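Batch manifest line 210
LIGAND: PMT
JOB: complex structure
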Amino acid sequence: LITAGPTYEAIDPVRFIGNHSSGKMGFALAEEAAKKGANVTLISGPTALKIQNPNIEFHGVTSAREMFDEVFKHYYAADIAIMSAAVADYTPKIVAPEKIKKNEEEFSIQLVKNPDILKTMGEKKTHQFLVGFALETQNEEENAKGKLNRKNLDMIVLNSLRDSGAGFRGDTNKIKIITQTEQKEFSLKTKEEVAKDILDFINDKLPQNL
Ligand code: PMT
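JOB STATUS: finished
ARTIFACT:
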């Protein structure tokens, strides 16, 4: 089970709160996992990308709430879950039914917290090998380790916007994999190569029968 892309949180029928995720990292993970023979379910927020491998089961979603619901339709049947989506932490409390007019000089939107999909997966973990991503801009390792522990993950993939060529949109990424007992840093590579590194690392940790 893999998630990819951004989520869009509606403000009104024409506007949303989103982020810069293109889906490339998650799609690369899905393609590489399918190439290795895995039965892949890919759940993605809005993206221009198309899956290539016909063995990938694809589910498109828009908001964090929709991603949450779709993830939990598939989570219990999954052996490995890799959450590379950039999920919005907050969503507008009220979605305006009509386009908001620009009458005011200042305008505020009240936001409420979205469910944390990955944290809920950590709480409900049965047999799954659960992998999160951490996108950081400062105190990278400390923040990633905090997420590893708080969300009850088996491993976390850290990428930092301070590394050029890493993170959103581009075709490359630079990652550090962190578990409770190990840390492994990788050089800047294409997202396909990064996906291979992540899957090889996971494969080494799994019981032989998977
Ligand atoms: O799509 P690309 O353009 O290729 O970019 C790839 C990427 C930068 C989006 C990707 O490599 C990445 O870092 N994804 C995680 C982005 C993120 O939201 O990180 P975070 O540190 O805010 O979240 C930590 C983890 O919790 C993530 O696994 C996220 O999926 C999950 N999360 C976060 C919030 C929330 N409400 N629910 C979640 O499940």
